[in-house]
Automatic annotation (TrEMBL):
This protein's record includes keyword 4Fe-4S: no
Molecular functions (GO terms): acyl-CoA dehydrogenase activity; flavin adenine dinucleotide binding
SUPFAM superfamilies from the UniProt entry: Acyl-CoA dehydrogenase C-terminal domain-like (SSF47203), Acyl-CoA dehydrogenase NM domain-like (SSF56645)
Signal sequence annotation: none
Species for this entry: Pseudolysinimonas yzui
Acyl-CoA dehydrogenase C-terminal domain sequence ranges: 262-393
One Pfam short name: Acyl-CoA_dh_2
Protein name, UniProt field: Hydroxylase
The keyword Oxidoreductase appears for this protein: yes
InterPro entries linked: Acyl-CoA_dehydrogenase, Acyl-CoA_DH_C, Acyl-CoA_Oxase/DH_mid-dom_sf, AcylCo_DH-like_C, AcylCoA_DH/ox_N_sf, AcylCoA_DH/oxidase_NM_dom_sf
Keywords: Oxidoreductase
Any Gene Ontology biological process: fatty acid beta-oxidation using acyl-CoA dehydrogenase
Length: 434
């Protein structure tokens, strides 16, 4: 009788998992030994190891949100989550960079000239073609309007993939002389217009190269490479149906929660990879102070493993439920409502933190051998903590947003609640307030 699966039980595959998504996921699972072998190298380099970068490129994962017409696969929410989860089992930084490679999608809403410039070399580009940095942050760069465009300078943080990308999107503010207002915009910079700052020295996800970038002197950004932040919801919605592929059937809110699904999938993948490593190590290591030949014979280790698998299964069930529903509504032409987004996001953020607790527990149960830098368990702990500390995935602020809604209080006018309904009477079809 064969060994039971680490994650299960097995159900029929989702009807929203495409042949392309299945192929990509399965190829990544086949290359997990390579990803694991080079993960420490990527940490030391502060970017994906060359072998990892090439392998992820080869399966097409950096193009999951790029339109079919431009050489991508335009995958839906379920496909993307499956791909990212598989990557998370081997190298969480690779999974993170596949998610944020969706920054290239933003270019599609710019002037067609900008789109054509960015995607001219995408067929042969190894890695994400574009990164985004400090677009919605409280502090962005400074700009001023000039003939034909803007002069922009500043420092922009958290540019994940900046060492691998050919282009970057950054945020800036400028004074609108026509209205006297201070306005925000997003501009596209070419690789020769910014310097990468060596400041990504962190505990986990080190190979994401989420460095700051800066332009100390003003650089010229032509009008066609600029959009105003206030126009982004309209621009994003206008992309719906403009290109082929399920990714371009999602509504604005559907696309937002699909991205959150991808980050939750990364956490599930990290946890599953950690459990696999835990089982392998516990089956070989003798316990410190009990008379068993291996730790796997200890009841306490068996309990930890059993609870871990149950938690991962539960997290996966929530993840797949939401990913499938996003794709179902997209194909059926059904909308998400503004009040759907915070609840779905909370469900997924909760699962990220449940996976974090699993990974922490596995390391504590295995003991001091797990803290060696050569041990993949300690990397999983560090990586998943960095995922969970991202501003969008901190559980208490997200719970507060949801709790306010449950008590019928007005939503906050903040970025994490961009899709929340405005103050006032609930719109038609909204759930009743208590």
């Amino acid at each position: 009788m064969g060994a039971p699966p680490v994650a299960g039980p097995k159900f029929p595959e989702s009807p929203y998992l495409s042949e392309v998504g299945r192929r990509m996921r399965d190829e990544i699972i086949e290359m997990l030994p390579l990803l694991r072998e080079h993960a420490a190298e990527g940490e030391a380099l502060g970017e994906l190891a060359p072998a990892t970068l090439e392998a992820v490129h080869r399966v097409g994962a950096f193009k999951v949100t790029i339109p079919l017409e431009l050489g991508g696969s335009a995958l839906g929410a379920r496909d993307t989550a499956e791909v990212v989860k598989a990557l998370g089992q081997g190298d969480a930084s690779a999974g993170w960079l596949v998610i944020v490679s969706s920054a290239a999608r933003n270019t599609l809403g710019f002037d067609p000239k900008a789109r054509d410039e960015v995607f001219a070399g995408v067929a042969d580009w190894v890695g994400p073609i574009m990164f985004g940095a400090t677009v919605f942050a409280p502090k962005v760069g400074d700009g001023r309007k000039v003939d034909g465009g803007y002069l922009v300078k500043g420092k922009w943080s958290f540019g994940s993939g900046s060492k691998h990308a050919a282009w970057g999107t950054v945020g800036f503010e400028y004074d609108d002389e026509a209205t006297g207002e201070r306005r925000r915009a997003m501009g596209i910079l070419s690789r020769d217009q910014y310097e990468i700052v060596d400041d990504w020295h962190v505990m986990g996800l080190q190979a994401t190269n989420s460095n700051s970038v800066r332009a100390d002197e003003e650089v010229f950004v032509p009008d066609y490479r600029v959009v105003h932040t206030s126009d982004l919801p309209r621009i994003t919605e206008a992309l719906r149906g403009q290109y082929s592929g399920l990714a371009f059937k999602h509504s604005t809110i559907g696309g937002m929660v699909a991205t959150t699904c991808a980050f939750a999938a990364l956490a599930v993948g990290i946890a599953q990879g950690a459990l696999e490593s835990f089982l392998q190590q516990a089956a070989k290591r003798p316990p410190f102070n009990l008379p068993y030949s291996t730790m796997a014979e200890m009841a306490s280790i068996q309990v930890v493993a059993g609870k871990a698998r149950a938690t991962i299964n539960a997290a996966e069930a929530v993840l797949w439920r939401h990913a499938d529903e996003i794709d179902r509504r997209a194909l059926a032409g059904e909308e998400f409502f503004p009040w759907d987004e915070p609840e779905i996001t909370m469900d997924l953020v909760h699962q990220i933190h449940e996976c974090l607790r699993v990974v922490d527990g596995l390391l504590l149960a295995l003991g001091s051998s797990a803290v060696a830098l050569s041990n993949p368990l300690q990397r999983a702990v560090r990586d998943i903590h960095v995922v969970a500390t991202h501003g969008a995935f901190r559980i208490d602020p997200m719970a507060e947003i949801n709790g306010r809604a449950l008590f019928g209080l007005e939503p906050f006018p903040m970025m994490v609640a961009l899709s929340s309904p405005p103050p006032g009477a609930p719109p038609p079809g909204a759930p009743p307030r208590p």
